[in-house]
Automatic annotation (TrEMBL):
Example of a GO MF term: protein-N(PI)-phosphohistidine-sugar phosphotransferase activity
Biological processes per GO annotation: phosphoenolpyruvate-dependent sugar phosphotransferase system; regulation of DNA-templated transcription
Pfam families on file: HTH_11, Mga, PRD
InterPro entries in the record: BglG_antiterminators (IPR050661), HTH_11 (IPR013196), Mga_HTH (IPR007737), PRD (IPR011608), PRD_sf (IPR036634), PTS_EIIB-like_sf (IPR036095), PTS_EIIB_2 (IPR013011), WH-like_DNA-bd_sf (IPR036388)
Domain PTS EIIB type-2: residue ranges: 407-496
The PRD domain, residue ranges: 294-402
Protein name: PRD domain-containing protein
PROSITE patterns reported for this sequence: PRD_2 (PS51372), PTS_EIIB_TYPE_2 (PS51099)
Presence of keyword Protease: no
Keywords: Activator, Repeat, Transcription, Transcription regulation, Transferase
Transmembrane segments: none
Length: 530
């Protein structure tokens, strides 16, 4: 198999759900035709193993429909056939984790043999890894018999590992998966994190934080505790300067008991500085644990100001769920200030999804961030911006359930005024949620970007830079109806809320109709004005 085919097969095998051809095309930066050819080559190899093939599930994507046992066997055979090797990014991750967690010295010449690469390739990997670590103010140096080691503050090293693992591997799961369910990067991590120790820590975490509802924060606490344990085992500890910061934090009996049990279970020798350090990190990751040293006035100012600003900019009536939004947002802002002031960064695995699917909300929050930064005098990173946006997005979804969506749309038609108006009328008839704001011809295309519209329907292909476009027939067909329905579903993030307020005029008319149907009358005397 070609290298690219192996990469494709690894990608599909590591996924627990179908992946669209388009997504694979974008991921590998090749055409969809190339992806289909690679799938064909991969299936030829899979046929020799007498297992399931890569199939295209209509409307979902490609997937290998095999059991976990069969997937394990496929992975095993790929490895035995000499195909299963680490790619450049995977080698860099493995090298980083081996230096961070391995109890044995790490020598580059041994890694060359392990990776089956040349010295020049290994040198290139190291250059890129060193460049990646430079933003954390960390270097990798070769220290004689001790092999490769990190040079930098231990506090920075731990935060770097926390950041890299979150970004390149994803949040650790609160249930242990079989090897076949793990991605390649997750499998790399399991080389350095013992399964039994993972389960032991997981059970401790579940016991002490069983009342914590936020699963993501549980995962973050689990990951950082693992990093803390394995770095301590290598003899790396934070300096005495950290003790001063930890002493400023509130005491929390539950967290202290959790740390004591971790120390006992892993048979660690830990000083008070390290215990306080981990306690503070957990408190800053735990949204239920609010630090009283935070200026609660500033927290309220930020919360109220942010709610008001986002509603004004987006036009979404968040005030209809004000109490619920305020409570969740206030708690998050409070813990966020504690985190960012202490240099703790929480990675958001759905950052890009929030930016893409709730772009208007994200942009509004992002625009307000300078006001937060001026109050707390600390930079707010985009991961924190996305967490703030999530609170608004959640309320937005609740509002949508109680509301209807409208899509302000432009109709482009080059078949004359009569046909254009027919198309616009047909769209309104079949889809009441489509609000046609303008019908234009080919000579007026420049107006599209100037109009307050969300979608564009055209009878012929045109170039539109910032609005979703669907090409339809001048006279809408059955196929068009299906396509339009899917188009609206795919672009529902562009819809605008239309709150279903009670129409009292309509209600009054209904009452009159009921009275008339029952041959009744209403007189002034029937009302009590006293």
């Amino acid at each position: 198999m070609k290298v690219r085919t192996i990469k494709l097969l690894k990608k599909i095998l590591s996924s627990s759900y179908p992946i669209s051809i388009k997504s694979l095309s974008e991921y590998f930066n090749v055409s969809t035709r190339t992806i289909q050819n690679l799938i064909g080559e991969a299936n030829e190899y899979l046929e020799t193993l007498n297992y399931g093939l890569i199939k295209n599930i209509r409307g979902k994507g490609v997937f290998i429909e095999v059991s976990l046992e069969e997937k394990n066997e496929i992975i095993k055979n790929i490895f035995l056939d000499g195909y299963f090797f680490l790619e450049k990014e995977e080698r860099e991750l493995d090298l980083l984790l081996s230096i961070a967690f391995s109890q044995e010295p790490i020598f580059l010449n041994k890694k060359e043999k392990e990776y089956l690469v040349s010295k020049s390739t290994m040198d290139d990997d190291m250059r890129k890894l060193r460049k990646k670590l430079s933003k954390y103010d960390i270097e990798i140096i070769s220290n004689g018999k001790y092999g490769c080691i990190f040079e930098g503050s231990e506090r920075s090293i731990r935060m770097m590992l926390f950041d890299v693992i979150n970004k390149e591997i994803g949040t650790v799961e609160l249930t242990r998966k079989t090897r076949a369910q793990l991605s390649i990067n997750q499998q790399i991590l399991t080389k350095y994190i013992d399964d039994e120790e993972f389960e032991m820590l997981l059970n401790i975490l579940k016991e002490f934080f069983k009342n914590m509802d936020d699963e993501m924060y549980k995962k973050q606490i689990l990951l950082f505790t693992l990093i803390w344990v394995y770095r301590l085992r290598k003899g790396n500890s934070v300096g005495s300067m950290s003790l001063e910061k930890m002493e400023e934090s509130n005491q929390n009996n539950e967290i202290e008991e959790y740390i004591l049990l971790v120390i006992e279970s892993f048979e660690l020798e830990v000083n008070q500085i390290e215990s306080n350090y981990l306690k503070f990190i957990i408190m800053s990751l735990n949204t239920e644990s609010l630090d009283n040293s935070i200026n609660w006035v500033n927290t309220q100012i930020i919360t109220i100001g942010l709610m008001k600003y986002v509603e004004e900019v987006t036009g979404i009536p968040f005030h209809k769920k004000e109490e619920k939004l305020y409570e969740s947002l206030y708690n998050h802002v409070s813990s966020m200030i504690s985190r960012v002031k202490s240099g703790v960064q929480v990675f958001n695995p759905i950052l890009e999804s929030i930016k893409n699917n709730y772009s208007e909300i994200y942009k509004a929050v992002e625009d307000f961030v300078p006001q937060i930064e001026s109050l707390i005098e600390v930079e707010i990173l985009e991961s924190e911006v996305s967490f703030l946006a999530i609170h608004f997005s959640t309320i937005y979804m609740h509002l949508r359930e109680e509301s209807s969506l409208i899509f302000k749309s432009v109709v482009v038609c080059n078949h004359g005024i009569a046909t254009s108006n027919l198309l616009a009328a047909s769209l309104r008839k079949w889809f009441p949620e489509i609000d046609v704001v303008a019908v234009i011809g080919s000579q007026d295309l420049f107006l599209i970007n100037k109009l307050d519209a969300d979608l564009v329907f055209s009878t012929y292909p045109i170039e539109v830079s910032d609005k979703p476009l669907l090409v339809v027939d001048p006279v809408i067909t059955e196929d068009n109806l299906v396509a339009i329905k899917e188009f609206l579903m795919d672009n529902n993030q562009f819809g605008r809320l239309k709150i279903n307020n009670s129409d009292y005029t309509e209600m009054f008319n209904e009452i009159i109709s009921v009275i008339n149907r029952n041959n009744q009358t209403v007189n002034v005397a029937d009302y009590n004005f006293s």
